[in-house]
Design a protein that fits this description.
There is one protein chain. The chain is α+β, with helices and mostly antiparallel strands and about 110 residues long. The protein has a single domain, classed as S16 Ribosomal Protein, Chain: A (2-Layer Sandwich). Strands 4-3-2-1-5 form a five-stranded mixed beta sheet. The mean pLDDT is about 85.
Length: about 110
């Protein structure tokens, strides 16, 4: 069962909360996730200086270690949280980088 780490959107318009979830890759967009890995709330309460993010770092690293592939938006969140390093194997390559890799001979 191919797993994916995605960002699921909840809440009404202009009042969204995002859940970082592990879900079957073939599941529909609003399907039931296998596991909730984190919550990202982009709204800031009056007096707050930072946006609220709650992670389950051990579970995120577990899912990455067993082969779950994060989506582009999940990669951005995980990089902001220093869970994965920038330019890791999960970071999507640009078209120029893909072309350069295709031109280099493999040993």
């Amino acid at each position: 069962m191919p797993m994916r780490i995605r960002v699921a959107m909840h809440g009404v318009r202009n009042n969204r909360i995002f859940h970082l979830v592990a879900i079957n890759q073939r599941a529909r967009r609003d399907g039931k996730p296998t596991e909730l890995l984190g919550i990202y709330d982009p709204r800031m309460a009056p007096g707050d200086t930072e946006k609220k993010v709650e992670w389950s770092i051990d579970r995120i690293k577990y899912w990455l270690s067993v082969g779950a592939v994060p989506s582009k938006s999940a990669v951005k969140l995980l990089e902001m949280g220093n869970i994965i390093e920038p330019n890791s194997k999960f970071h999507p390559l640009s078209h120029q980088q893909k072309a350069a890799l295709a031109k280099t001979p493999s040993p």
